[in-house]
């Protein structure tokens, strides 16, 4: 048995800047028509085409590593002849000069430059509990872990203390990822909704000072909440925090057992307290299949109070960024199952084999979730895409056979 207390402090740098961010790059093979000329398809009109180069990216001569300072405190303990193990950790991390793309107006004509523009704080707790025991020829082990994580943007580094990302204006969605000082980073940003207009009387009665709040709405359209009570649904004061892709809790469970050469191992994983922004349900892609929930859309009075009617024109903007996209992303998944059998040594030694084990492995066998999209375990690589489901192909369920042979 043992008991250990751990404490650590460290300061690290993140050099994931990329090449030549500090200097201006030029792109060749550019052309422009002067003198009123232009090109329609392959037909050249009047004018003289000039060849040249153009800036490929906006430089940032002041870019540097981001710095993070982390403190950890915890303990590891083993009891009952090392059968029971317990671990607990608390950590706090402060990141200065975060490497982020700095948003630019569209008229600049260049992609956003990377800069050291933010300070963020993370803190959390990790807990692990395990048990192993041998009973005659039977061995088994159970191990569980759970982590709780919170983050907060301390300083974004611009004048307003806020910025929006992932602006899908062409899709009729608008910006739906936002960062703001003092808030969890990042979070989903959009309108609150209050059901669906069931008839024209409901549309006509949704007014402010005698004027319709949604003048383009029709029965079956979404009723958006006028948060600032100014009688107009707009970005200025009606969009707000509607969810977050970062989970509060992540957890895992491992079960293992073996008996007379037969072994079984299972691994479960999951998250809780996170949302998914189901971007795949955007309304600007008509030539595609829809999930089965579209069958529950509004198609007459009292047929649906949540999913709006289907319409090509969409004058009400039913599918602009709102809480209609935000769904509970919590899940638990049986990630891996492996069943194996090791042949008795008295058999294998006859053919000069020290160990021969056959096994079958299944991955992504079962998933328990309320999320109705393809896969709740969406990509979380880029900071401005955490929890966004773009309808990519889900993780496949695989079953494989194999053998381990030791000569």
Automatic annotation (TrEMBL):
Q: Which InterPro entries match?
A: Beta-barrel_TonB, Beta-barrel_TonB_sf, TonB-dep_rcpt-like
Q: What is the lineage of its organism?
A: unclassified sequences, metagenomes, organismal metagenomes
Which keywords, in A-to-Z order, does the entry hold?
Cell outer membrane, Membrane, Receptor, TonB box, Transmembrane, Transport
Provide the Gene Ontology terms for cellular component. Answer: cell outer membrane
Q: What is its main location?
A: membrane
Q: Where in the cell is it found?
A: Cell outer membrane
Q: State the annotated membrane topology for this chain.
A: Multi-pass membrane protein
Tell me the organism.
Answer: termite gut metagenome
Kindly name one Pfam family recorded for this protein.
TonB_dep_Rec_b-barrel
Which PROSITE patterns does the record cross-reference, listed alphabetically?
A: TONB_DEPENDENT_REC_3
Positions of the TonB-dependent receptor-like beta-barrel domain: 1-365
* Protein's name in the database: TonB-dependent receptor SusC
């Amino acid at each position: 048995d043992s008991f250990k207390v751990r404490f650590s402090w460290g300061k690290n740098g993140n050099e994931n800047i990329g090449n030549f961010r500090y200097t201006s790059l030029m792109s060749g093979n550019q052309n422009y028509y002067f003198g009123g000329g232009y090109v329609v398809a392959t037909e050249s009109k009047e004018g003289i085409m000039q060849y040249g180069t153009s800036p490929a990216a906006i430089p940032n001569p002041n870019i540097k590593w981001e710095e993070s300072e982390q403190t950890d405190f915890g303990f590891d303990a083993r009891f009952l002849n090392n059968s029971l193990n317990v671990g607990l950790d608390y950590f706090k991390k402060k990141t200065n000069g975060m490497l982020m793309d700095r948003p630019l107006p569209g008229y600049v004509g260049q992609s956003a430059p990377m800069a050291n523009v933010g300070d963020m704080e993370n803190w959390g707790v990790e807990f692990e509990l395990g048990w192993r025991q041998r009973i005659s020829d039977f061995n088994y082990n159970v191990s569980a872990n759970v982590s709780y994580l919170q983050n907060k943007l301390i300083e974004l580094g611009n004048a307003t203390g806020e910025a929006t990302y992932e602006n899908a204006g062409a899709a009729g969605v608008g910006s739906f990822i936002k960062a703001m000082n003092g808030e969890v980073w990042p979070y989903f940003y959009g309108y609150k909704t209050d059901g669906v207009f069931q008839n024209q009387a409901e549309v006509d009665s949704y007014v402010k000072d005698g004027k319709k709040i949604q003048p383009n709405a029709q029965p079956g359209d979404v009723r958006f909440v006028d948060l600032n009570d100014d009688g107009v649904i707009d970005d200025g004061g009606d969009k707000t925090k509607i969810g977050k892709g970062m989970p509060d809790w992540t957890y895992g469970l491992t079960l293992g057992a073996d008996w007379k050469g037969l072994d079984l191992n299972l691994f479960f994983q999951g998250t809780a307290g996170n949302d998914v922004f189901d971007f795949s349900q955007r309304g600007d892609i008509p030539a595609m299949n829809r999930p089965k929930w579209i069958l529950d859309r509004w198609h007459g009075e009292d047929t649906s109070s949540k999913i709006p009617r289907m319409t090509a024109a969409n004058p009400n903007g039913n599918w602009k960024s709102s809480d209609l996209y935000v769904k509970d992303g919590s899940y638990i998944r049986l990630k891996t199952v492996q069943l194996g059998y090791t042949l008795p040594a008295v058999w294998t030694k006859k053919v000069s084999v020290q160990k021969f084990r056959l096994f079958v492995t299944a991955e992504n066998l079962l998933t328990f979730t309320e999320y109705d999209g393809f896969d709740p375990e969406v990509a979380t690589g880029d900071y401005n895409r955490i929890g966004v489901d773009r309808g990519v192909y889900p993780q496949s369920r695989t079953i494989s056979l194999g053998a381990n042979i030791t000569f």
